[in-house]
Structures are given as structure tokens and as C-alpha cells.
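Attaching the record inline, Q. Sequence:
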Amino acid sequence: MGATPRITLIVGPGGREHAIGSTLSQQGHHVLYAPGNGGVPQDRRIKLAPTDIAGIVAAARSRGVDIVVVGPEVPLVAGLVDALTRAGIPAFGPSAACAQLEASKSYTKELCRQLHLPTASYKVATSFSHAVELIRRCPRVPVIKADGLAAGKGVIIPGTCDEAVKAAYAMLEQRRFGIAGASILIEDNLVWGREEHCRELSLMFLCDGRNALALPPVRDCKRAFDNDEGPNTGGMGGYSPVPAADVDMAEELRQRFALPILEEMNRRGHPYHGVLYLGFMMTPDGPYLLEINTRFGDPETQIVMPRLEDNDWFDIFLRSTRFGGLDGVTVNVSNQVTVGVVIAASGYPETFETGFPLGNLEAANRLAHVFHAGTDRSADGTVVAAGGRLLTIVGSGDAFDAAHWRAYAAAGLVSNGTHTRLRMDIAARMLTPA
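Structure, as predicted:
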């Protein structure tokens, strides 16, 4: 890396953004955040909402930013990368046209149909009466999904048809997810009756319009409570590597899913740059595409970044903005195991309290990586809760046992059991039997 630090502006308030920024800072780059969170220096924070497109463009220009890395999906869908590109500012992330792959599940399903990509069968409903009719016709209890952006919470997996009807009512009539639930997908449940044989897998690809470089697979735990029970959340933890997903499997998924998607977006006149996140259900019948996200995952980014620190991330981000810029680039992956545990406010993903202090963070950081998300700082500098998912605590080690111990030992220093909670079973199945 050159002697002059390059300036990166990271857009977003979460743990994903903190993990990326921490890595860039360790590599000697100057990092700004809009708006950042309680885990980053106050003088590096710019008080701009991620959706303030004009403000972010102006801030990037006035501060001499070399590249903008966009974290959340909402500003991507709103066209932030397009606006930055028009202003001549390199931006890591897809255009608004490409971000439709995340903004609309029905758009993605139609693309899967066109490309013959395995995915669960589905129907779309825009009225409650039609939804009930479709649900009653399903041979087994379907999954109900809000078509639009719902911060990772718009997927409901009912146990009965009556629960499926209630979920459809909550979305279509009560507008539980706002405009995101004005249209819903009624989707076949791939897991029904064979839970022990199906596992989710998250795989992120760095894209430059032509190339797709696979990052290490992650197994993310989305349900709120232990044993994969409770409502879906934005993610309560996960681990990497995923022993069942070796290099050959990642390459198969890249060839079978990622590259055809890139080729199709090119054909439509929208080269795909940034991160293409593919969520799979690995079944006895092979992989099925569950979802596409058009940005780094959260908490997947926090979990994989400690395994990827031996890469020039500024260079990778910049190369990704140019068509074919990743030609010849390889991603270095360490042999370390990482286990990530999310500390959330009690009540998340429903109603939860904020404003309470979070202690012992320095002690936790000596044991594991502590990535902030829904945090802020009070007037006296105390870190306080400001959201639902507060921290991702990531333990690293040569084996799962060591990584798991560090993650939970550090999390135990911070979680107080009154205002916060965490899942206690993340990566438990990977541990050496006692």
C-alpha cells in the first residue's frame, strides 16, 4: 500500500460497516462513516442518514473521498451508487437497477425462472382474499414473504395453515412491513418434514460486472431463539467455515448461480458491481436459491472479515467498481475458524428498550472482535443501546471449540440478562463432543 492513506467513506450504521471500516483502518486507510455508530471515533462520523443521497455526494466531494462503500440495501435501491458515479466518485455497490434483485423477491423469482435456477415454487398475492385462496391450495404449509425490503424480518415460517393466513393478514391488511408487504410471496417450504437434512448456507461474491470472487461460506442463524425457534431476525449469529461447503462446492455454486446472474444483468444492460449475496437451502435434492441480497450480509460480514484481513480491501473495492477490474485477483482466506454471536436488546425483533449502557466492552475486545451495530454514545462517552441488534461478538481460533469459547466468554462480559439477550446455541453442533 502507498504511503498516503486513501480516504474511504462507509455508508451505514451497522456491524457490517464497523467490520469493514475496522479492517481498512488496520490497513492504514483513513475511514469516515455516515453515520457510523458508537463503536467508531466521533470525529470520523458524519451526521448523514444513509438515504441522504445529495448530502452523501456533497460530503464525499468536499472531503476528498477516494471511494464510497455502501453498506445497507435501502440507499442502494434509492440510487446512491448511481448518484456518486454521475458525480465522478468511485462507489462500491450495485446500481439501483441491479439492487432490484433484493428490492423485489418476485423480480428475483422471475429471473430464477428465466435462468432455470433451482428455487422454491411460489405464487404472488396482492389481496388478502387471494392469499387465503392460494394458501388453502398448498399441499403443505407455505412460507410467507413480504415482496419488498423488510430489514431481513419479512419472512414468516408458519407451523399451520391458520398461522400462514394470519401472516398474510398481518402483511396485506395490517401493513406490518409497510409498502414492502403490499405484495407477498406464498412459497413452498423446502424444509417441511425433513428438517434434519436441510441447512441454510450464505455465500457472498465480490463482483466487477464480469467476475464473481467467492468469499468464505457462512452459516447464519436467523431465528430469534435457540434451536431455530421464534421469528426471523436480521441474523443472531453464525460461523465460518462451513465444513460441508468446501472449495469445490463454492465453485459449483459460483458457476451454477452467480455467473449466470451476472451474465443476465449484463444482457439487460446493468452490469453488476459490488457484493452479490446468495442465500441457499442445501437439501437432499441439491441447492435451492432462497434469496438474493445486493450487499454485504450482516452478521455474515463480521464473521468472515477476521478471516480476510490479509487482503488489500481498498484495492479490492476500487477494482470492483471497474468492469473486469478483478481480473487476476484472488482473495486470501486464513485457516482460522470464526464464531459470531449477536447481542440484541430484549424483545428484538419486536418491541425493545434503548438507552441503557453497555459495559465491559474493552475486556470483551481483548478476548474477541467486538463489532458495534445498534449503539451510540451518551454525552459522557458511555456506549448505550440505540437499536435492536447491538453488537456482534466474533471469536477466532484454530478450531471451533476455541472460537466458540472466546465468542461466548466475551459476550458473557457484556450481556447483562436484563436488557439484552443472545442465542446460546450458535455453532454448538460444530463442537467436539464431551
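The first strand starts at residue 7 and ends at 12. The mean pLDDT is 94.

More tomorrow.
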